[in-house]
Amino acid sequence: xxxxxxxxxxxxxxxxxxxxxxxxxxxxxxxxxxxxxxxxxxxxxxxxxxxxxxxxxxxxxxxxxxxxxxxxxxxxxxxxxxxxxxxxxxxxxxxxxxxxxxxxxxxxxxxxxxxxxxxxxxxxxxxxxxxxxxxxxxxxxxxxxxxxxxxxxxxxxxxxxxxxxxxxxxxxxxxxxxxxxxxxxxxxxxxxxxxxxxxxxxxxxxxxxxxxxxxxxxxxxxxxxxxxxxxxxxxxxxxxxxxxxxxxxxxxxxxxxxxxxxxxxxxxxxxxxxxxxxxxxxxxxxxxxxxxxxxxxxxxxxxxxxxxxxxxxxxxxxxxxxxxxxxx
Length: 328
Ligand code: NAP
Ligand code: G4F
Description:
Blueprint: E1 3-7, H1 12-23, E2 27-32, E3 51-54, H2 60-70, E4 74-77, H3 84-89, H4 91-112, E5 117-123, H5 146-165, E6 169-174, E7 177-178, H6 187-199, E8 206-208, E9 214-215, E10 218-219, H7 220-231, E11 239-241, E12 247-248, H8 249-259, E13 268-270, H9 288-294, H10 302-322
Parallel strand pairs: 1-2, 1-4, 2-3, 4-5, 5-6, 6-11, 7-10, 8-13
Antiparallel strand pairs: 9-12
Bound molecules: NADP nicotinamide-adenine-dinucleotide phosphate (NAP) and ligand G4F.
NADP nicotinamide-adenine-dinucleotide phosphate binds near residues 7, 58, 97 and 183.
Protein backbone atom coordinates (compact mmCIF):
# COMPACT_ATOMS: atom_id res chain seq x y z
CA UNK A 1 0.00 0.00 0.00
CA UNK A 2 1.72 3.27 -1.08
CA UNK A 3 1.66 6.20 1.33
CA UNK A 4 0.88 9.77 0.30
CA UNK A 5 1.48 12.84 2.44
CA UNK A 6 -0.81 15.75 1.58
CA UNK A 7 -0.12 19.27 2.84
CA UNK A 8 -3.25 21.46 2.66
CA UNK A 9 -5.53 18.45 3.23
CA UNK A 10 -8.20 20.66 4.84
CA UNK A 11 -8.50 22.75 1.65
CA UNK A 12 -10.72 22.23 -1.37
CA UNK A 13 -8.19 20.22 -3.38
CA UNK A 14 -6.89 18.33 -0.36
CA UNK A 15 -10.34 16.87 0.26
CA UNK A 16 -10.86 15.69 -3.35
CA UNK A 17 -7.31 14.35 -3.61
CA UNK A 18 -7.78 12.36 -0.41
CA UNK A 19 -10.95 10.75 -1.77
CA UNK A 20 -9.17 9.95 -5.03
CA UNK A 21 -6.05 8.45 -3.40
CA UNK A 22 -8.12 6.33 -0.99
CA UNK A 23 -9.94 4.90 -4.02
CA UNK A 24 -6.53 4.08 -5.54
CA UNK A 25 -5.58 2.12 -2.40
CA UNK A 26 -3.23 4.62 -0.75
CA UNK A 27 -2.62 5.19 2.92
CA UNK A 28 -3.22 8.97 3.23
CA UNK A 29 -1.42 11.10 5.80
CA UNK A 30 -2.68 14.69 5.98
CA UNK A 31 -0.64 17.52 7.43
CA UNK A 32 -2.62 20.19 9.27
CA UNK A 33 -1.35 23.28 11.02
CA UNK A 34 -2.08 23.79 14.67
CA UNK A 35 -5.22 25.85 15.34
CA UNK A 36 -7.26 26.53 18.46
CA UNK A 37 -10.26 24.89 16.77
CA UNK A 38 -10.28 22.13 14.15
CA UNK A 39 -11.02 23.01 10.57
CA UNK A 40 -12.01 19.61 9.20
CA UNK A 41 -15.30 20.55 7.49
CA UNK A 42 -14.20 19.29 4.05
CA UNK A 43 -12.62 16.03 5.30
CA UNK A 44 -15.00 15.17 8.15
CA UNK A 45 -16.37 12.19 6.19
CA UNK A 46 -12.82 10.84 5.66
CA UNK A 47 -11.35 11.16 9.16
CA UNK A 48 -11.70 7.49 10.06
CA UNK A 49 -9.80 6.46 6.90
CA UNK A 50 -6.80 8.79 7.11
CA UNK A 51 -4.05 9.87 9.51
CA UNK A 52 -3.97 13.52 10.53
CA UNK A 53 -0.63 14.91 11.68
CA UNK A 54 0.46 18.36 12.78
CA UNK A 55 3.03 20.33 10.81
CA UNK A 56 3.52 23.71 9.19
CA UNK A 57 5.24 24.89 6.03
CA UNK A 58 6.86 27.60 8.17
CA UNK A 59 8.60 24.99 10.26
CA UNK A 60 11.45 22.95 8.75
CA UNK A 61 11.73 20.57 11.70
CA UNK A 62 8.08 19.52 11.51
CA UNK A 63 8.48 18.58 7.83
CA UNK A 64 11.64 16.57 8.46
CA UNK A 65 10.10 14.58 11.29
CA UNK A 66 6.87 13.88 9.36
CA UNK A 67 8.80 12.40 6.47
CA UNK A 68 10.96 10.37 8.82
CA UNK A 69 8.02 9.01 10.77
CA UNK A 70 5.45 8.34 8.02
CA UNK A 71 7.83 7.45 5.13
CA UNK A 72 5.61 8.64 2.26
CA UNK A 73 6.21 7.49 -1.31
CA UNK A 74 4.55 10.65 -2.65
CA UNK A 75 4.18 14.18 -1.28
CA UNK A 76 1.47 16.50 -2.63
CA UNK A 77 2.28 20.06 -1.58
CA UNK A 78 -1.12 21.76 -1.74
CA UNK A 79 -0.72 24.04 1.28
CA UNK A 80 -0.51 27.75 0.51
CA UNK A 81 -1.91 31.17 1.28
CA UNK A 82 -4.05 30.78 -1.83
CA UNK A 83 -6.33 33.85 -1.91
CA UNK A 84 -4.95 36.47 -4.32
CA UNK A 85 -6.32 39.65 -2.58
CA UNK A 86 -4.85 38.54 0.77
CA UNK A 87 -1.45 38.37 -0.89
CA UNK A 88 -1.46 42.19 -1.16
CA UNK A 89 -2.44 42.68 2.48
CA UNK A 90 -0.09 39.90 3.75
CA UNK A 91 2.69 39.75 1.15
CA UNK A 92 5.48 38.57 3.44
CA UNK A 93 3.39 35.75 4.92
CA UNK A 94 2.37 34.74 1.40
CA UNK A 95 6.03 34.56 0.41
CA UNK A 96 6.95 32.57 3.52
CA UNK A 97 4.30 29.88 2.98
CA UNK A 98 3.55 29.84 -0.73
CA UNK A 99 7.17 30.34 -1.89
CA UNK A 100 9.69 29.40 0.83
CA UNK A 101 7.44 26.64 2.17
CA UNK A 102 8.13 24.74 -1.07
CA UNK A 103 11.88 24.93 -0.47
CA UNK A 104 11.45 23.67 3.08
CA UNK A 105 9.54 20.61 1.85
CA UNK A 106 12.03 19.95 -0.94
CA UNK A 107 14.90 20.22 1.56
CA UNK A 108 13.15 17.75 3.85
CA UNK A 109 12.73 15.30 0.95
CA UNK A 110 16.38 15.72 -0.08
CA UNK A 111 17.59 14.93 3.43
CA UNK A 112 15.14 12.19 4.46
CA UNK A 113 14.54 10.27 1.21
CA UNK A 114 15.33 11.72 -2.23
CA UNK A 115 13.26 8.94 -3.83
CA UNK A 116 9.99 10.50 -2.62
CA UNK A 117 7.94 11.81 -5.56
CA UNK A 118 6.90 15.46 -5.12
CA UNK A 119 3.96 17.38 -6.58
CA UNK A 120 3.95 21.18 -6.37
CA UNK A 121 0.60 22.97 -6.74
CA UNK A 122 1.55 25.69 -9.21
CA UNK A 123 -0.93 28.11 -10.67
CA UNK A 124 -2.07 29.79 -13.88
CA UNK A 125 -1.75 33.03 -11.87
CA UNK A 126 1.96 32.74 -12.79
CA UNK A 127 1.02 33.70 -16.37
CA UNK A 128 -0.65 36.87 -15.06
CA UNK A 129 -0.49 39.54 -17.76
CA UNK A 130 -0.40 36.74 -20.27
CA UNK A 131 2.32 36.94 -22.89
CA UNK A 132 0.67 34.25 -25.02
CA UNK A 133 -2.91 33.05 -25.62
CA UNK A 134 -3.66 30.26 -24.82
CA UNK A 135 -1.08 29.55 -22.09
CA UNK A 136 1.03 26.39 -22.27
CA UNK A 137 4.05 24.92 -20.44
CA UNK A 138 6.47 27.14 -22.41
CA UNK A 139 4.58 30.44 -21.98
CA UNK A 140 6.74 32.95 -20.05
CA UNK A 141 5.49 34.02 -16.62
CA UNK A 142 4.37 37.58 -15.78
CA UNK A 143 2.77 37.38 -12.31
CA UNK A 144 0.49 40.23 -11.21
CA UNK A 145 0.20 39.70 -7.45
CA UNK A 146 2.44 38.74 -4.53
CA UNK A 147 0.66 35.36 -4.72
CA UNK A 148 1.59 34.94 -8.38
CA UNK A 149 5.18 35.96 -7.62
CA UNK A 150 5.37 33.43 -4.77
CA UNK A 151 4.01 30.66 -7.02
CA UNK A 152 6.63 31.48 -9.67
CA UNK A 153 9.29 30.96 -6.99
CA UNK A 154 7.64 27.66 -5.97
CA UNK A 155 7.60 26.52 -9.60
CA UNK A 156 11.27 27.31 -10.27
CA UNK A 157 12.57 25.88 -7.01
CA UNK A 158 10.77 22.63 -7.89
CA UNK A 159 12.38 22.60 -11.34
CA UNK A 160 15.72 23.50 -9.76
CA UNK A 161 15.68 20.66 -7.21
CA UNK A 162 14.76 18.26 -10.01
CA UNK A 163 17.70 19.48 -12.10
CA UNK A 164 20.18 19.95 -9.24
CA UNK A 165 19.51 16.87 -7.14
CA UNK A 166 17.66 14.52 -9.49
CA UNK A 167 14.44 14.57 -7.44
CA UNK A 168 11.20 13.34 -8.99
CA UNK A 169 9.66 16.77 -8.51
CA UNK A 170 6.90 18.10 -10.77
CA UNK A 171 5.03 21.36 -11.05
CA UNK A 172 1.37 21.13 -12.05
CA UNK A 173 0.31 24.47 -13.53
CA UNK A 174 -3.39 24.29 -12.80
CA UNK A 175 -5.98 26.75 -14.02
CA UNK A 176 -8.89 27.75 -11.77
CA UNK A 177 -10.85 24.78 -10.47
CA UNK A 178 -13.97 25.05 -8.39
CA UNK A 179 -16.59 22.98 -6.60
CA UNK A 180 -19.23 23.20 -3.88
CA UNK A 181 -16.22 22.91 -1.48
CA UNK A 182 -14.56 26.07 -2.82
CA UNK A 183 -13.84 28.76 -0.20
CA UNK A 184 -16.63 31.35 0.02
CA UNK A 185 -14.30 34.24 -0.86
CA UNK A 186 -13.46 32.99 -4.38
CA UNK A 187 -15.67 34.44 -7.10
CA UNK A 188 -17.46 31.27 -8.29
CA UNK A 189 -18.50 30.30 -4.77
CA UNK A 190 -19.29 33.89 -3.81
CA UNK A 191 -21.69 33.97 -6.78
CA UNK A 192 -23.26 30.53 -6.16
CA UNK A 193 -23.75 31.32 -2.49
CA UNK A 194 -25.09 34.81 -3.30
CA UNK A 195 -27.57 33.41 -5.85
CA UNK A 196 -28.84 30.86 -3.32
CA UNK A 197 -29.31 33.49 -0.61
CA UNK A 198 -31.07 35.90 -2.98
CA UNK A 199 -33.34 33.15 -4.33
CA UNK A 200 -34.34 32.16 -0.78
CA UNK A 201 -35.00 35.75 0.31
CA UNK A 202 -31.95 35.94 2.59
CA UNK A 203 -30.19 38.72 0.64
CA UNK A 204 -31.13 41.24 -2.01
CA UNK A 205 -27.84 42.11 -3.71
CA UNK A 206 -24.42 40.68 -4.53
CA UNK A 207 -21.40 43.01 -4.54
CA UNK A 208 -18.64 42.02 -6.94
CA UNK A 209 -15.51 43.57 -8.45
CA UNK A 210 -14.35 43.28 -12.06
CA UNK A 211 -17.00 41.47 -14.13
CA UNK A 212 -14.91 41.44 -17.30
CA UNK A 213 -12.04 39.25 -16.00
CA UNK A 214 -11.92 35.92 -17.81
CA UNK A 215 -10.87 32.57 -16.38
CA UNK A 216 -10.55 28.95 -17.51
CA UNK A 217 -12.76 27.32 -14.86
CA UNK A 218 -13.01 23.55 -14.33
CA UNK A 219 -14.21 21.11 -11.66
CA UNK A 220 -11.73 20.43 -8.83
CA UNK A 221 -12.58 16.70 -8.72
CA UNK A 222 -11.15 16.36 -12.24
CA UNK A 223 -7.94 18.24 -11.43
CA UNK A 224 -6.75 16.05 -8.55
CA UNK A 225 -6.66 13.10 -10.97
CA UNK A 226 -4.16 15.08 -13.07
CA UNK A 227 -1.96 15.65 -9.98
CA UNK A 228 -1.75 11.91 -9.35
CA UNK A 229 -1.16 11.09 -13.03
CA UNK A 230 1.83 13.47 -13.07
CA UNK A 231 3.50 11.46 -10.29
CA UNK A 232 2.90 8.13 -12.10
CA UNK A 233 4.90 9.12 -15.21
CA UNK A 234 8.25 7.56 -16.03
CA UNK A 235 10.04 10.93 -15.97
CA UNK A 236 9.27 14.05 -13.92
CA UNK A 237 7.84 16.82 -16.12
CA UNK A 238 5.61 19.85 -15.69
CA UNK A 239 2.08 20.07 -17.08
CA UNK A 240 -0.56 22.73 -17.72
CA UNK A 241 -4.05 21.57 -16.70
CA UNK A 242 -7.21 23.41 -17.73
CA UNK A 243 -10.28 23.06 -19.93
CA UNK A 244 -9.19 25.20 -22.89
CA UNK A 245 -12.32 27.39 -22.52
CA UNK A 246 -12.54 30.85 -21.01
CA UNK A 247 -15.54 32.70 -19.52
CA UNK A 248 -15.99 36.11 -17.91
CA UNK A 249 -17.24 36.75 -14.38
CA UNK A 250 -20.25 38.38 -16.11
CA UNK A 251 -21.03 35.11 -17.95
CA UNK A 252 -20.66 33.25 -14.64
CA UNK A 253 -23.28 35.58 -13.10
CA UNK A 254 -25.61 35.27 -16.09
CA UNK A 255 -25.54 31.46 -15.87
CA UNK A 256 -25.77 31.21 -12.08
CA UNK A 257 -28.69 33.65 -11.68
CA UNK A 258 -30.32 32.27 -14.85
CA UNK A 259 -30.29 28.77 -13.34
CA UNK A 260 -32.78 29.89 -10.65
CA UNK A 261 -34.83 32.05 -13.03
CA UNK A 262 -33.30 35.42 -12.05
CA UNK A 263 -31.57 38.17 -14.08
CA UNK A 264 -28.15 39.00 -12.60
CA UNK A 265 -28.51 42.66 -13.68
CA UNK A 266 -31.23 43.09 -11.05
CA UNK A 267 -28.94 42.01 -8.17
CA UNK A 268 -25.23 42.37 -8.97
CA UNK A 269 -23.66 45.64 -7.77
CA UNK A 270 -20.17 46.45 -9.03
CA UNK A 271 -18.05 47.71 -6.17
CA UNK A 272 -14.76 49.38 -7.03
CA UNK A 273 -13.36 48.47 -3.63
CA UNK A 274 -13.29 44.85 -4.82
CA UNK A 275 -11.08 45.64 -7.82
CA UNK A 276 -7.47 44.43 -7.52
CA UNK A 277 -4.38 46.69 -7.63
CA UNK A 278 -3.27 44.69 -10.70
CA UNK A 279 -5.67 42.34 -12.51
CA UNK A 280 -5.16 39.16 -14.49
CA UNK A 281 -7.53 39.84 -17.39
CA UNK A 282 -7.52 36.65 -19.41
CA UNK A 283 -6.54 33.08 -18.64
CA UNK A 284 -7.10 30.17 -21.00
CA UNK A 285 -5.16 26.91 -21.01
CA UNK A 286 -3.71 24.92 -23.82
CA UNK A 287 -3.98 21.51 -22.10
CA UNK A 288 -2.80 19.52 -25.11
CA UNK A 289 0.29 18.09 -23.37
CA UNK A 290 -1.79 16.81 -20.44
CA UNK A 291 -4.31 15.33 -22.87
CA UNK A 292 -1.65 13.59 -24.96
CA UNK A 293 0.72 12.41 -22.23
CA UNK A 294 -1.52 11.91 -19.19
CA UNK A 295 -4.69 11.02 -21.08
CA UNK A 296 -6.36 13.68 -18.91
CA UNK A 297 -9.68 15.28 -19.91
CA UNK A 298 -12.11 17.36 -17.86
CA UNK A 299 -15.48 15.65 -17.34
CA UNK A 300 -17.60 18.61 -16.13
CA UNK A 301 -18.52 21.52 -18.43
CA UNK A 302 -18.67 25.12 -17.24
CA UNK A 303 -22.52 25.28 -17.22
CA UNK A 304 -22.64 21.94 -15.33
CA UNK A 305 -20.13 23.25 -12.79
CA UNK A 306 -22.13 26.44 -12.19
CA UNK A 307 -25.39 24.49 -11.79
CA UNK A 308 -23.70 22.01 -9.41
CA UNK A 309 -22.44 24.85 -7.20
CA UNK A 310 -25.69 26.82 -7.15
CA UNK A 311 -27.73 23.68 -6.39
CA UNK A 312 -25.37 22.73 -3.53
CA UNK A 313 -25.62 26.18 -1.96
CA UNK A 314 -29.42 26.19 -2.34
CA UNK A 315 -29.59 22.86 -0.53
CA UNK A 316 -27.22 24.07 2.21
CA UNK A 317 -29.27 27.21 2.91
CA UNK A 318 -32.60 25.33 2.70
CA UNK A 319 -31.31 22.84 5.27
CA UNK A 320 -30.33 25.69 7.60
CA UNK A 321 -33.76 27.25 7.25
CA UNK A 322 -35.50 23.89 7.79
CA UNK A 323 -33.47 23.21 10.93
CA UNK A 324 -34.61 26.51 12.44
CA UNK A 325 -31.09 27.99 12.38
CA UNK A 326 -32.34 30.84 10.20
CA UNK A 327 -35.58 32.76 9.74
CA UNK A 328 -36.28 34.63 6.54
P1 NAP B 1 -7.35 26.22 -0.17
O1 NAP B 1 -8.72 25.65 -0.16
O2 NAP B 1 -7.15 27.66 0.15
O3 NAP B 1 -6.45 25.34 0.82
C1 NAP B 1 -5.19 25.76 1.24
C2 NAP B 1 -4.66 24.79 2.27
O4 NAP B 1 -3.37 25.22 2.71
C3 NAP B 1 -5.51 24.67 3.54
O5 NAP B 1 -5.59 23.32 3.91
C4 NAP B 1 -4.71 25.47 4.56
O6 NAP B 1 -4.93 25.06 5.88
C5 NAP B 1 -3.30 25.10 4.14
N1 NAP B 1 -2.26 25.98 4.68
C6 NAP B 1 -2.18 27.33 4.57
N2 NAP B 1 -1.08 27.78 5.18
C7 NAP B 1 -0.44 26.70 5.69
C8 NAP B 1 0.75 26.51 6.45
N3 NAP B 1 1.52 27.54 6.80
N4 NAP B 1 1.14 25.26 6.78
C9 NAP B 1 0.34 24.20 6.45
N5 NAP B 1 -0.81 24.32 5.76
C10 NAP B 1 -1.21 25.55 5.39
O7 NAP B 1 -6.65 25.98 -1.61
P2 NAP B 1 -7.08 24.99 -2.81
O8 NAP B 1 -8.04 25.70 -3.70
O9 NAP B 1 -7.42 23.67 -2.26
O10 NAP B 1 -5.71 24.93 -3.61
C11 NAP B 1 -4.71 23.97 -3.27
C12 NAP B 1 -3.37 24.45 -3.81
O11 NAP B 1 -3.43 24.61 -5.21
C13 NAP B 1 -2.90 25.81 -3.26
O12 NAP B 1 -1.50 25.77 -3.19
C14 NAP B 1 -3.33 26.78 -4.35
O13 NAP B 1 -2.50 27.93 -4.30
C15 NAP B 1 -3.07 25.93 -5.58
N6 NAP B 1 -3.90 26.24 -6.75
C16 NAP B 1 -5.26 26.28 -6.63
C17 NAP B 1 -6.03 26.52 -7.76
C18 NAP B 1 -7.53 26.56 -7.67
O14 NAP B 1 -8.16 27.06 -8.62
N7 NAP B 1 -8.14 26.03 -6.60
C19 NAP B 1 -5.41 26.70 -9.01
C20 NAP B 1 -4.03 26.62 -9.08
C21 NAP B 1 -3.27 26.37 -7.95
P3 NAP B 1 -6.12 25.71 6.80
O15 NAP B 1 -7.35 24.92 6.48
O16 NAP B 1 -5.59 25.51 8.17
O17 NAP B 1 -6.26 27.15 6.39
O1 G4F C 1 -12.04 33.55 -7.79
P1 G4F C 1 -10.86 34.42 -7.72
O2 G4F C 1 -10.57 35.08 -6.42
O3 G4F C 1 -9.64 33.55 -8.24
P2 G4F C 1 -8.19 33.93 -8.82
O4 G4F C 1 -7.73 35.25 -8.38
O5 G4F C 1 -8.22 33.66 -10.29
O6 G4F C 1 -7.27 32.85 -8.09
C1 G4F C 1 -7.67 31.49 -7.95
O7 G4F C 1 -7.24 30.75 -9.07
C2 G4F C 1 -5.81 30.67 -9.21
C3 G4F C 1 -5.53 29.87 -10.50
O8 G4F C 1 -5.52 30.77 -11.58
C4 G4F C 1 -5.25 30.01 -7.99
F1 G4F C 1 -3.90 29.85 -8.11
C5 G4F C 1 -5.56 30.83 -6.75
O9 G4F C 1 -5.08 30.16 -5.58
C6 G4F C 1 -7.08 30.95 -6.65
O10 G4F C 1 -7.59 29.66 -6.40
O11 G4F C 1 -10.99 35.60 -8.82
C7 G4F C 1 -11.25 35.33 -10.18
C8 G4F C 1 -11.56 36.64 -10.91
C9 G4F C 1 -10.53 37.75 -10.66
O12 G4F C 1 -10.20 38.34 -11.89
C10 G4F C 1 -11.27 38.77 -9.81
O13 G4F C 1 -10.88 40.12 -9.99
O14 G4F C 1 -12.81 37.15 -10.43
C11 G4F C 1 -12.70 38.55 -10.28
N1 G4F C 1 -13.69 39.00 -9.30
C12 G4F C 1 -14.67 39.91 -9.55
N2 G4F C 1 -15.36 40.13 -8.43
C13 G4F C 1 -13.76 38.65 -8.01
C14 G4F C 1 -14.81 39.35 -7.46
N3 G4F C 1 -13.01 37.77 -7.30
C15 G4F C 1 -13.35 37.61 -5.98
N4 G4F C 1 -12.63 36.73 -5.24
N5 G4F C 1 -14.37 38.31 -5.39
C16 G4F C 1 -15.13 39.19 -6.08
O15 G4F C 1 -16.05 39.83 -5.52
